[in-house]
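In this section we walk through a basic example: taking a raw amino acid sequence and producing a predicted 3D structure, encoded as discrete structure tokens. The instruction is simple. Fold the sequence below.
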Amino acid sequence: MRYASSDYVDTQTVGDALIGFDVRCKPVGYMALVIVSLIGAYEEAFEHDEPRIRMALGVYQDTWLRAHRDGSATSPRLRQGRRMRWLDTVLQPLALSDDRRQLLKTALALAVGPDSLIILKDVCGLSSTEASATLRRAALALLRAELREEADPRT
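The resulting token sequence is shown next.
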């Protein structure tokens, strides 16, 4: 499902632009810039289309609940996984073990997307701008911590 209308840059456009881009030669600052840009794109999409984004997230939750209420042993695949593919692309240049890359990608997925924006707005009472700033700070802290660990595994 695409959340965006044509009057602003949507998350799929920003994320898809990464897929064909060779990031192996880019500095770490590029990774940070792209992650911050993704968070910003989600914030902008959310500002322009919050009701539809919340409705889509509700549909995902209802679909999961229906499947489990009906006794399904497996969870249905509810989303396409674009966020994870984008993060794979962004993190590609880092020389990390598969386990560490997966851990960083999973942690960053918490900061990139509408789910965390909603939690920060609804639970913490932040504005969209404050929530987005918080997510950017968290994402960059995760990336910096991993880079420090990569440079000096003893830390």
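Looking at the output, two observations stand out. The chain has one domain: 11-151. Residues 1-9, 18-25 have pLDDT under 50 and may be disordered. In the next section we compare this with other chains.
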